[in-house]
Amino acid sequence: MKSLLSSIVLWSLFLVGLSATVASGAVLDGTQKDVTTYGGIALSLVAGSRIAKKDPIKSFLSSRPVLWFLFLFNGVVAAAAGFALDGVQGITAAAGMGLVSLGAGFGLLQNRGTRSRATENHGMRSRGTQGLETQGRGTPTPA
């Protein structure tokens, strides 16, 4: 019950942050609009990062197909943003999307390393006691 309640609160905060970011321009002007926009961004980032650490979302985001999609899509958008947008806006968009693409790429490389280690460990377990010797005590010990 506690987990369900915390999930509802986190998702609510995430949606409030997104709403404040998107809708503040239609309701507010000047400094209030800027404060609300940046506050909404911060709130949605904090709540979203907490949501991403929970198990169903974490396992989905770390799956190979999702990582490949994030790597390729954000890489293409980063390259296109540099040409499609001018000035600081283009540089910022390209840098942000490029960072997401690099993060997904590092996730793919990290999964590749852990997957090969898991294969090696599985191979060791499947041999059974073939690699074990008895050292006079009658009990097998690692060679």
Give structural notes:
It contains five helices and two strands. It is mostly helical and 143 residues long. It has a two-stranded antiparallel ribbon with strand order 1-2. α1 (2-27) packs antiparallel against α2 (30-52) and α4 runs antiparallel to α5 (87-126). The radius of gyration is 24 Å and the shape is flat.
Question: Which short descriptors sum up this protein?
Answer:
143 residues, mainly alpha, two-stranded antiparallel sheet, 5 helices, 82% helix
Total strands: the figure is 2
Strand arrangement, major sheet: 1-2
Major sheet details: 2 strands, antiparallel
Strand and helix order: HHHHHEE
N-end to C-end Cα span: 50 Å
Q: What structural class results from the helix and strand content?
A: mainly alpha
Mean pLDDT: 81
**β-sheet strand percentage:** under 5%
Q: How large is the radius of gyration?
A: 24 Å
H/I helix tally: 5
Low-confidence stretches: none
Helical residues, percent: over 70%
Topology:
Layout: H1 2-27, H2 30-52, H3 55-61, H4 64-84, H5 87-126, E1 132-134, E2 140-142
Helix pairs in contact: 1-2, 4-5
Quick description:
By secondary structure, this protein is mainly alpha-helical. Helices cover 82% and strands 4% of the residues.
